[in-house]
Design goal:
The complex is a heterodimer of chains A (536) and B (266). Helices cover 43% and strands 18% of the residues of chain A. Chain A has 536 residues and is α+β, with helices and mostly antiparallel strands. Chain A has 3 domains: 3-121, Beta Polymerase, domain 2 (2-Layer Sandwich); 169-202, no CATH class; 217-528, Cytochrome-c3 Hydrogenase, chain B (Orthogonal Bundle), CATH 1.10.645.10. In chain A, strand 1 (21-27) and strand 2 (30-35) form a beta hairpin. In chain A, helix 9 (287-308) runs antiparallel to helix 10. Chain A is globular. The model of chain A has no long low-confidence stretch (mean pLDDT 89). Chain B has a domain at 117-262: 3-Layer(aba) Sandwich (Rossmann fold). Chain B starts with a helix and ends with a helix. In chain B, 52% of the residues are buried. The model of chain B has no long low-confidence stretch (mean pLDDT 80). Classes of the chains: A alpha+beta (536), B alpha/beta (266).
Chain lengths: 536, 266
């Protein structure tokens, strides 16, 4: 996309660290820099601080058989491109931590420690993350010698939560089995009276070993798996996976397929946003609004069903294109249903906004500071609610989003002003969701002028081993990144998934600090985080 | 005028659809896999290879093909490869009491129930009135699901399905529950929590495994991080297949569970 920009960056960094970068190469929108392990923190720091690049993900893979060590890829996002800083650990089983310079890296480093057994030296948090205390110490599931179906013994151990001590401070443990119909996770509140002094989240209860499992699957099976990373993000995740494979295979999918992917991605965004708005209404103790919005959600899910055969849009994508066609009859159905829903939606939102008790409950609740949101590397609505202007659909257009990004200078200015005004509370997130639902209606309507053509192109039967690529999509929660490296015989060598929830979960610990315990469900719902998408 | 404005906001009166029989599912819905003819040897081989969850298997003795609905995730790959013998029907698979009943064979055909959501609901309501004095309490436990089944279970509470009118409600603690509705392949990290939830539920209790993952592990299978089905951790009374099962099927599963309680587990 922004090839010239990336070339400039490549030039700048090779000038600055000339003797430290062993190899530079560029592949479309990915700039790869091979560096030595010891120089890596300095270079990462430079990229993060001087270029204001956002840490997108850290990918580790076990390449001991090929190159004699683990490879770690630090992926930074900048100006429509991705900068990969690649190091090999060689014989060493540790690597220098960058968490003190790039706070968002802390979680990735703990994940690598659990799954590969590499120690991030200098990371202040040495506790396990993915593998809970009952996993034995010497088990590293993503190492190649670990067999997928091994049943490891349980061990007795306790997880050291952060202890807050003082007069009148007590703890409330919540979960993993929650009171509502939601996914499992543990929250440890330290409270003084009703005020939350500290919140610690402990997740990964739904860890199913998806990344390890993918290494034993065929590509079309892995596609089904990618849909089930998080049931409500099925289109976003499978699109990202398909794009990664399509980039490895170097095929361009038909225009029609791109548009259909866009339509389904937006349908997914609408039904989830409407569901989240209903949830916010429930948690703000206004069940009437929730009931009305839930009716809309049900109607949208029925629309999903008649278009794709699944109420939550499973089975839309295939590698090289899409599986479901949108016929003229379907186009009519989509337009009619969406017009009806859009009318009703506007009425309900008007009603909600006219209720001062509802608006008061949202205003100033769960406020996030812009600095914290930036440091933790948040994405999606959580970032946009504090005015960090990122949206994968615009920054890295995929599908047919490049057709919807044209804004007049006036619109751009208005957008800028609106971003400046955003306050980072639950109300800001509520309003952004409402706006995004309306935008999605427009995008779908604009996309319905489908060309005639094939639904998919075939991809080569065997893909080149050890080629890798990054695929991305903007789910309703934010950016989701899928990195795939092919292995021999068309198998998957490494499949790294980073959904928006992984970036956004840590912000909740900060968002609740000025609030009382009864506000927690509302704050949690307004952030709309996925447990399954985080835990993998 | 006020009346008209109110109608605009509030909606058109009762939203609960009384006759869902015809609206049950659209013709495209992937509800179940049905054999239309006996697969040949070659086709059986192809089907076994293509099925991502090994739901389709050959039965050696009578050259038939078996379909484990508890494993099927309705991806539809089989009907794309061998469209002559297998088709995807929009009738969802019905819940069963025993794991052996979940399997269909290519020679004897079983057809899913034709009852509407409303009929089942009313039948259920009568039984709940007798057995539980008008209230059946459910605790939902997510043991590693992808959140797909949760979306459908939440849909039971929306004004269209409105399960509370049949005397069923979701409770916040297993100590208040008669039924545990469990989803997910029972991830290893949730094993202890699931077991403790089960122990905390007062007897007589019924456990319902919801979705392909809960029935068999589904696409996540039986690996280092999962246990391969809820019944590996706690005893299961009713299996509801589907990926995810739609609300109409969930309520059928509840009816079956209540039946089972009335007949003391038979």
């Amino acid at each position: 996309m922004n090839n010239t920009n990336l070339e400039n960056y490549a030039k700048e960094i090779t000038d600055k660290f000339s003797n430290k970068i062993t190899k530079t190469y560029q592949n479309n929108d990915e700039l790869h820099l091979d560096v030595e392990l010891n120089d890596m923190p300095k270079i990462c720091d430079y990229v993060y601080k001087n270029w204001n690049a956002r840490l997108a993900t850290i990918i580790c893979s076990d390449e001991r058989k090929n190159i004699g060590g683990f490879t770690i890829r630090y992926v930074f996002e900048k100006d429509g491109g991705f900068i990969f800083i690649i190091v090999s650990t060689g014989q060493s089983l540790s690597f220098p931590s960058i968490a003190l310079h790039v706070p968002a890296a802390a979680l990735y480093e703990r994940e690598i420690k659990d799954m590969f057994g590499l120690i991030p030296t200098g990371n202040p948090d040495t506790r396990p993350l993915v593998l809970h205390e009952h996993w034995p110490d010497e088990i590293f599931p993503l190492r190649k010698e670990f067999e997928l179906e091994t049943k490891v013994k349980r061990q007795e151990k306790e997880y050291p939560f952060l202890r807050v001590q003082g007069e009148g401070i007590c703890e409330i443990p919540v979960g993993p089995v929650h009171a509502g119909i939601i996914e499992p996770g543990h929250f440890r509140f330290s409270i003084l009276g009703e005020n939350i002094i500290n919140l610690e989240t402990r997740l990964f209860y739904t860890h199913k070993g998806i990344e390890k499992l993918a290494e034993s699957l065929r590509l079309d099976e892995a596609l089904l798996l990618s849909e089930r990373i998080a049931g409500d993000e099925s289109v976003a995740n499978s699109s990202a996976f398909c794009q990664a494979i399509e980039k490895i295979a170097q095929v361009d999918i038909p225009k029609k397929a791109k548009k259909i992917r866009t339509i389904f991605a937006e349908l997914e965004r609408i039904y989830n946003h409407v569901g989240t708005l209903a949830g916010i209404s429930t948690d703000a103790s206004f069940p009437f609004g929730a009931a009305r919005l839930n009716i809309l959600k049900e109607r949208l899910m029925r629309l999903n069903e008649s278009l794709s055969g699944s109420r939550i849009l499973f089975g839309v994508n295939r590698i090289g294109g899409v599986r479901c066609d949108i016929t003229d009859e379907n186009k009519k159905l989509i337009l009619e249903t969406l017009r009806e829903i859009s009318d009703d939606f506007d009425k309900i939102i008007m009603l909600l906004k006219s209720k001062s008790s509802f608006m008061d409950r949202l205003r100033g609740t769960g406020t996030i500071q812009k600095k914290i949101a930036y440091d933790l590397g948040t994405v999606g609505i959580v970032a946009r609610c504090v005015g960090i202007d990122i949206d994968t659909r615009r920054d890295h257009p995929y599908g047919s989003y490049h057709l919807h990004n044209h804004k007049t200078p006036q619109e751009l200015m208005q957008h800028q002003i609106e971003m400046e005004k955003r306050t980072g509370d639950a109300l800001a997130r509520f309003e952004i969701r409402v706006q995004e639902v309306r935008d999605s209606f427009d995008i779908i309507e604009e996309s319905l002028n489908l060309e005639n053509g094939a639904l998919f192109t075939s991809i080569p039967d065997s893909l080149e081993p050890f080629r890798s690529s990054l695929g991305w999509a903007e789910s309703h929660r934010g950016q989701t990144l899928h990195w795939v490296m092919m292995g021999e015989n068309n198998s998957i060598f490494r499949y790294k998934i980073r959904t928006a929830s992984f970036c956004n979960w840590s912000v909740i610990e900060q968002a609740v600090l000025n609030d009382i315990v009864p506000d927690f469900p509302l704050v949690n719902k307004s952030l709309d985080l996925s447990y399954s998408g985080n835990d993998l | 005028m006020i009346k008209a404005a109110r109608k605009g906001i509030v909606g058109n009166g009762i939203e609960t659809i009384k006759n869902l029989a015809n609206l049950l599912s659209s013709k495209n819905y992937r509800g179940s896999v049905i054999f239309t003819a006996e697969p040949t040897n070659d086709q059986r081989k192809m089907l076994e290879d293509i099925c991502p969850t090994k739901a389709l298997f050959s039965v050696k003795e009578n050259n038939a093909m078996g379909l484990d609905n508890g494993k099927c995730i309705m991806c539809g790959y089989c009907s794309e490869v061998v469209s002559e013998t297998i088709k995807i029907s929009n009738k969802p698979v019905i819940p069963v009491k025993m794991k052996s009943q979940i399997i269909d064979y290519s020679n004897p055909q079983t057809f899913p129930s034709e009852k509407s959501y409303e009929q089942i609901g009313n039948e259920l309501k009568e039984k709940i009135q007798k057995m539980f004095s008008r209230s059946l309490a459910i605790r939902q436990v997510d043991a590693g699901s992808c959140n797909g089944c949760e979306i459908e279970i939440t849909a039971l509470n929306n004004p269209i399905y409105d399960i509370e009118r049949f005397g069923i409600h979701f409770v916040a603690s297993p100590r208040h529950a008669d039924v545990l509705l469990v989803t997910g392949p029972a991830s290893r990290n949730m094993e202890t929590a699931l077991l403790r939830t089960y122990e905390a539920t007062p007897g007589p209790k019924i456990v319902i495994a919801v979705g392909a993952c809960a029935c068999s592990g589904g696409i996540f299978g039986d690996t280092h991080a999962t246990t391969g089905g809820i019944d590996k951790v706690i005893p299961v009374d009713v299996y509801i297949p589907g990926c995810p099962p739609r609300p109409e099927v969930l309520i059928q599963g509840l009816l079956l569970a209540v039946d089972r309680m009335i007949t003391n587990g038979k």
